[in-house]
Amino acid sequence: MNPADNMELAIERLYVSTSAELDRRILADASAALEESVRERPTLGAPSLWRVVLRSRIAKLAAIVALVITTLAVAVLIWTSAVRDKKAIVREPDLRQRLAAEFEWIEQTYAVGDIDGLVAMLSEGQFASKVLAAKYLGQIGDERALPELDRLYLLAEERLPPGYTENPFAEPIEKIRNRIKTELDQRAVESDVNDIGAMEVPAATGRVLDFFVVDRLTAEPIAGVELHITVDGEESNDVTDEQGQCRIQFGKKQPNFVRIDVHKEGFVSMRVQFRKDEPALGIPKDYRLALQPGTSIGGFIQNEQGEPIEGATVYLLMPGSDESQTQYIWIWDHKVQTDAIGFWRCDIVPAKLDDIWIRLGHPEYIDDEVYGTTAKPSVEALRDMSGVMVLLWRQIRGEGIDPCGGG
């Protein structure tokens, strides 16, 4: 059979008879094939390779920008915090310096009895300065301070600053009102006495200086303060009473020069001086001195063998005092003695101590002729009381005499 016959046979075999049922089956199969073909074809809206790459680059750029912004934000935060901390560090010393300056100004104002100046500090100073000024005003007892003190009292009743458990203005107000009441009572008594003619109150004769001494920190009066007084070359000694007061009599003639050396154990020794020809102050009728609490130094005195020397005299001198001032620190030839273990201690030096001169003496050892003869410890060693100074044996007739009995 040739290929043509085969072709004809194949065509005949392909021949089918049609019917309505067969037509529906063929149409259904065609529709199903079409749906399958459409499902498998790629979506026309799918991104191209370029779009994927483009979107990837934008995402990376956005991430970089976000990282840069975050880094800058953190840097700004750190810088702001550092600046704030730096300002706080700078501000704290500034506040301390301002407070120290206000305290010094208050003491000077109190010393000359400037009521208006102290009252001004009640409205202008820092809170601690207001409290100190209020204490000094309470000691003076002038009623001009009451309006401002009453205002501060009411404010403190509403809210006390940290560190205060009681209203610090209550006591000064009470002192001033008690003093006013006492003066009124005294005037009433004097008036009654004069009315009945029973006695006369003699007028004060001569010139006087009412000298008051108070604690610098508490403004409380200090009793028993030793005063060495020099008036135009004449010397005398006195002490303050329970009110911290000493009345110094000058006689009928006003002196040209008055000097008062002030000493109280546990406080820094001071010197106060007045001159008649001093235009700012002259010889005042009253003066108030605020003593600062003393701090301590100490150490040991030994011989060359390292043995303690009992009964040695340690002389102390603080250099650098400005004698042109009305008042200044005065530690000059202040004496303390060693105990059985050769230990000595002094409690009248100021908190700020840059230098102190020391001179030693003992009957059986070679005395220091001048300050600085014997090497002294550092200020730090004097502060922690660990420093040692060595005295040499006194030479008699060319022989060394051992005070401990060694020959």
Descriptive notes:
With 407 residues, the chain is α+β, with helices and mostly antiparallel strands. Helix content is 41%, strand content 21%. The strands form five sheets. The protein has a five-stranded antiparallel β-sheet with strand order 3-2-5-6-10, with no helix packed on it. Strands 4-1-7 form a three-stranded mixed β-sheet. The N and C termini lie far apart (161 Å).
Task: Kindly summarize this structure in a few lines.
By secondary structure, the protein is an alpha+beta fold.
**Low-pLDDT runs:** 10-16, 193-206
**Physical arrangement of strands within the biggest beta sheet:** 3-2-5-6-10
State the helical fraction: 40-55%
Outline, from the CA principal axes? flat
How large a portion of the residues is in β-strands, by DSSP E?
Answer: 15-25%
Can you count the beta strands?
16
Give the helices and strands as they follow along the chain: HHHHHHHEEEEEEEEEEEEEHEEE
Write down the domain tally.
3
User: What's the N-to-C terminus distance?
Assistant: 161 Å
Q: Major β-sheet, in short?
A: 5 strands, antiparallel
- Mean pLDDT value: 79
Structural class: alpha+beta
Oligomer: single chain
Our count of helices gives 8
